[in-house]
Design brief:
With about 110 residues, the protein is of the alpha+beta class. It has one domain: Pnp Oxidase, Chain A (Roll). Helices cover about 30% and strands about 30% of the residues. It has helices at about 5-15, 50-60, 90-100; strands at about 15-25, 25-35, 35, 40-45, 60-65, 75-80. The strands form two sheets. It has a four-stranded antiparallel sheet, covered by helices on one side. Strands 3-4 form a two-stranded antiparallel ribbon. A hairpin with a 2-residue loop joins strand 1 (about 15-25) and strand 2 (about 25-35). The longest helix has 11 residues, at about 5-15.
Length: about 110
């Protein structure tokens, strides 16, 4: 098995991840949509200015995450991630998000 190719495949197919933060020894995990830029080797996800996520990142930018499996059991798990504010806006990556993420409507 080629781990790099398997990693790239999972990151291209997975649409959601569980992102874990910790501030003052209090863990917090949330499910997020994300995109992965293979060229930049970066994950992008949305965070609103001033929301709880952003406040946690400011206090501690060390995170862990795991992708949520879609088919089967394949997933990516990282326990030494670092969050940094991107110079890009949501508008810069909106097409990639729209292409990858599935949006559903419930009635």
């Amino acid at each position: 098995m080629d781990l790099k190719n398997e990693f790239e495949k999972i990151m291209a197919e997975a649409t959601t991840m569980a992102l874990a933060t910790s501030v003052e020894d209090i863990p917090n995990v949330r499910i997020l949509n994300f995109i992965y830029s293979a060229d930049e080797k970066l994950l992008y996800f949305q965070s609103k200015i001033g929301d709880q996520k952003e406040k946690e990142f400011i206090k501690n930018n060390n995170v862990a995450f795991t992708t949520i499996p879609i088919n089967g059991l394949a997933y990516v798990r990282v326990n030494n991630g670092i969050v940094k504010k991107s110079g890009k806006t949501i508008f810069d990556v909106k097409d990639a998000f729209a292409k990858k993420c599935r949006f559903t409507k419930t009635l």
